[in-house]
Amino acid sequence: MFKQSIKKLFPDRAHQLSFLILAVVLLVGIPLFCDSFRLNMAAKYLSLAFAAVGLVICWGYGGILSLGQAAFWGIGGYCMAAFLKLEAARNIAMEQGSDQIKALTTVGLPDFMDWNQITELPRLWYPFKSFPLTMICLLVVPGLIAYLLGNAIFKRRVNGVYFAIITQALCWLMEILFVTSQGLTGGINGITDLRTCLGWDIQSDSAHNILYFLTALLLLGSILLSKRVLHSKMGKILVAIRDMEDRVRFSGYDVSNFKVFAFAFAAVISAIGGALFSLNVGFMSPKLVTIEPSIYMVIFCALGGRRSLIGAVYGTLIVCLGRTFLSEKFPELWMFIMGGIFILTTVVCSDGLAGLVEQYGSRLWNFIKKYTRIDVLLAKISPRLTLSKEQS
Amino acid sequence: MQGFAGLSQFSVFLLMALGLAIIFGQMKVINMAHGEFLTAGAYTTVVISDLVTKYCPSLLPYYFIFAIIMAFVVAFLLGYLVEFMLVRHLYHRALDTLLATWGVSMIMQQGFRFIFGGREDSAILPEWLMGSWSPTDTIDIPLNGLFLLGTSIVMTLLVAFLMHRSRWGLNVRATVQNREMANAVGINTKKVDRVTFALGCGIAGIAGAVFTTIGSVSPAAGSLYIVDTFIVVVFGGAGSLLGTVLAAFSIAQSQSILEFFLSGVLAKVWVLAIVVGILMIKPQGLIANRVRK
Amino acid sequence: MNIESKVRNRALAGKLGAACLLSAALNAAAADDWKNPVLDKYPTAAVATSGISVGDNYVTVGQLHSISGTMAISETGSVEAERLAIKQINDMGGVLGRKIKIIQEDGASDWPTFAEKAKKLLVQDKVASVFGCWTSASRKAVLPIFEKENGMLYYPTFYEGLEASKNVIYTGQEATQQILWGLDWAYAQGCRTFYLIGSDYIWPRTSNKIARRHIEEHLKGCKVVGEDYYPLGHTSFGSLINKVKLKKPDCIYSIVVGGSNVSWYKQLHAAGITGESLAKKNKLLLTISTTEDEILGIGGENCEGFYACMKYFQSLGNENNVKFVEAFKDMWGDDSVIGDVTQAAYLGPWLWKATVEKAGSFDIDNVATASEDVEFTGAPEGYVRIADNHHLWSKARIGKMLKNGQFEMIAESDELIEPNPFPEGYK
Hints:
Distance between the termini of chain C: 42 Å
CATH class of the largest domain in chain C: Alpha Beta
Strand content of chain A: under 5%
Distance between the termini of chain A: 17 Å
Strand order of the largest sheet of chain C: 7-6-8-9-10-14-15
CATH topology of the largest domain in chain C: Rossmann fold
Radius of gyration of chain A: 22 Å
Strand order of the largest sheet of chain A: 1-2
Number of helices of chain A: 19
Shape of chain C: elongated
Shape of chain A: globular
Structural class of chain C: alpha/beta
Number of domains of chain C: 2
Largest sheet of chain C: 7 strands, mixed
Order of helices and strands of chain C: HHEHEHEHEEHEHEHEHHEHHEHHHEEEEE
Radius of gyration of chain C: 21 Å
Structural class of chain A: mainly alpha
Oligomer: heterotrimer
CATH superfamily of the largest domain in chain C: Response regulator
Number of strands of chain C: 15
Number of helices of chain C: 15
Helix content of chain A: over 70%
């Protein structure tokens, strides 16, 4: 049973190995070399990687380029942030005599609402009083929006370019709405000052470490889930649609349903990432819900290789690390480098890092095999892993 | 009065969209760097205006016409370069042009910042563009707005003439409809592509030059317009010049009318929502090219 | 407008990043061969007990502004002013005999980046204080970190108020300081109807809220005839101008910020609303957001004759300011302009120095408690004093915009105005 399911997820050893390496890098490598400050940064990057993983499914496999992925990611983030903010507001209400309490007219209401003359909690915020409801919201709302939107668009056979532009417009629309409805969303400041989650201080070092592992594990989990979807019949049809939509349609499939599913699935995965971002970073801002981060997410995915779930994670890590370190040293050069990456990954190697590995990886592997006995070693450590290869 | 506020917005949209309608509508290239060509044109104007004030202030009243031409030339050359180095490799991958040109736009923006610094800049307006024309006591129509409107009408007519009445336009349309066939009858399609792309960029450059009369220039100025412009082109129906004009007009007018009754932000939200809504019902845009797939 | 100055300014903005790195290196070098003359009186073990980065001859501070991205334009002036103040303090012998070393981080106009860098400064570099932030959003993003890690932030921008923290000293004006007195002035000029205009974010909205209350409840016979907000970066104000013309307010009260400013004033000018034309009808335009920095981009001819209410203008004639302007131009080029926020940023390091010397300690807790009543007599704006809520007592002034991009001060409050970040009855 276990072997079966592994086989289903990983068609060959290369896939198994790359997933294992990623798991080792995330769960052992990064925590080993980072203090809790850097680990928290890594967690922030990984929560962006969720969106890239979602894009692999809907863009790499489904051929639907969504330029509004940050919107879904952001909805997840805002749901989580709303829950945490309400909790923070309750905490302040408990803390008698603090400075902040003097500032509030309605105790127990998020501070930004108070500044906007809102005296009781808006209806829209009711679900965020309870943790389970918040969880449901942050998964269901993005999925539902994506489903409705996808249904409206794909049923009319709008092609990819138009879809990209429409999603972009919607993403922009959402940003404007988030910025302008200050009483509900905190406006351009976003929802800030999130300190505890269910009574647990999320700003402490130990919490940062735990949250990092939670993020990494959930990310690995989403990759596995995505692999499961892609290796099912569903995934095969998605690929077929991407390559020759009309032929699939003529074979009797309702193409739009598959596309809608891919789009909604990607939205849900992204939203998980957004929620983790709020937890890790302690605030949510409309700057993260706009067109620019959406395009960054696409480039994470493109750099990693648009058809590689694992590549998407590396793509995210590379771009984010580059941004952090290069922007410390050469803020001016960074934009040029970033632009260069965009151009290179689309013109020269459109399959990104994964493409490079695929092209040169087997040669490298053979080279390593020749001089070391690593394959024998691996086979000893984990006979299960080599199993599927022998069968295939 | 209020109608005129919409008209000047319409002119900005139209000038931006014209270039894009050629590039996106005809060539199916998603040029995200279109806004940066506008910025390039605007900076050209600023530089020329600075030079003129410094070396021969007496020419100040006339320099603007020259600046418009130079803005076109600069943007045209930049566009030519970008097509040659980048876009021509991507003709069969529309979505990839989007990413690659986004990269170009980042590089161009940073380039502007590098050369001109980050501050807001503006060109010095010749006297004849300042002030307003007031036929009656309650109406004043800003002269720069009139100039903007005039330029956009002239440019639209020029482009329409080029596309539908000139030999070159014929070549472009032939290339778009059937590349192999066009090649076969002796059209140098590569050259047509390059010039078409560069022309689209050049028009954006003109838009930039004219734009300095109502706003300022900063490295990121162009990126403010890019989404709006794409929406105009898509809404109008890609490939249809008339559609672009209609879309620019209806979006600009409805926005400015809504702005009058609602707040500026809400107006924007409503217009965007309505346009996206209409696009979902009618994905081909206002005027569809009747081409069977 | 002076063309050479524009060109110079561009080059300056471009080179600022490199210049900062260079001067940081110089700072460090200067500290190394410096002997602390008062080390006996203030031994390191006594002045820094909480693990912050203080040595026998140096103390480390952080500077956190956007050097890249859209906000870089606005924040450049603050970076320059803080650099100048720190250089002057170092030339005078430093703080408690210790020379100041600067660690600069780039917030890149991105709020999460601000939070990340703030944490780095506090946790990794253990700086004794941070001078930085500009937008409210960036301050809101770093505030929890400063409170959690116990740091000290000197924040230079005029802002919406509704905040007071042990870990922040606000060297700009909070909303009521800037607004109430200015509106009273406009009332005295005969304004009875007001049109409130702003960019769409918290500072203009909160400010206008306070303004509306004040107009409707405290100014006799006055009313607000319109209130409008436009997205940041908006460039076409045609409809708004038409609305304003229709309502014919006595006072156009404008809080438009950033790049929108240029379009706003240019289009006003083109539509025939100028300082002169308003004055003829005994009307005026009053802004609290346009400083000398913005006018540089707008062009003096487009906003000549409009009024601004803030606490500082470059053209102030007092002795402190003359010296400050001269030193600033010496360091950053003859063509620099200095706006209100730039001056407020200059106050930061000086107030910190005064506070540390009063407390005899660099420790954050001591600095925070000692801050109340610290005064700075050498401030370019005149005398300032820190209030118990960590804001500054300061004057309010009305300036009239001139064609050359400067202000002419035409009115000044008699007394220092008390900072009141949580105004009763205005919330």
